[in-house]
Design brief:
Number of helices: 6
Distance between the termini: 47 Å
CATH architecture: 3-Layer(aba) Sandwich
Number of strands: 8
Shape: globular
Order of helices and strands: EEHHEEEHEHEEHH
Strand order of the largest sheet: 1-2-3-4-5-6-8-7
Helix content: 25-40%
Radius of gyration: 19 Å
Number of domains: 1
CATH class: Alpha Beta
CATH superfamily: Gcn5-related N-acetyltransferase (GNAT)
CATH topology: Aminopeptidase
Amino acid sequence: MSNPLGEMVPNWTPRPFPERKVLTGRSVRLEPLDLAAHEADLWSAAQGANAIPGFWDYLNYGPYVDREVFRADMAANAASNDPRFYAVIDGRSGKAEGVAALLRIDAANGVAEVGHIWFGPALRQTTAATEAIFLFADYVCSELGYRRFEWKCNALNAPSRRAAERFGFAFEGVFRNHMISRGRNRDTSWYAFTDTDWPLIRTAFETWLEPANFDAEGRQIRRLEEIRLTMTTEPNEERFPTAAG
């Protein structure tokens, strides 16, 4: 029988606040946002994003047509401690092609969120984009030992909701009338995974990211969701079928 006051968390101590450090993967690198180092690349990425219909609809900023406005936003973001912004560096080009942040960082309780995500055209639907989310999660959950990692989005933002589920975040509900965004009501969908979920999610990410999971043209052989489901239902199945399979 569970304790009506909740389960004890033995030996808990507040976790470290995320450092301003570089997080490096196979196909992407996350660098703390720096105006001098990243502004020119990100301005170019933002112009590409401007050409994508609806790209900025669910963010509180953009599209960017005035470089001075863009530079001011980037400077404020680079100086922010929470949210803590990172430039997403594409490993192929070496250029900053997008932005993401850790935010609502609650070190005392071991909770953080990933958000403020915008990826320019070069990053959209790429291995690097998926690995960027993994690097954030692995840093927060594995290295810093946080108990909970969150993803929130406008409840009308179907692509973001699909992405959360693909990455392994569990849907926890909708906060109605949560905020006003661009003069409109925003209901917010909440997603999260916890420290007990993380080992399986982490292994699925690592398995998906292995070079063996991509064919000669760089196309995935198995989907991330498929790998995660297989791990829970058929743990002894061969990890990778042939590309033709």
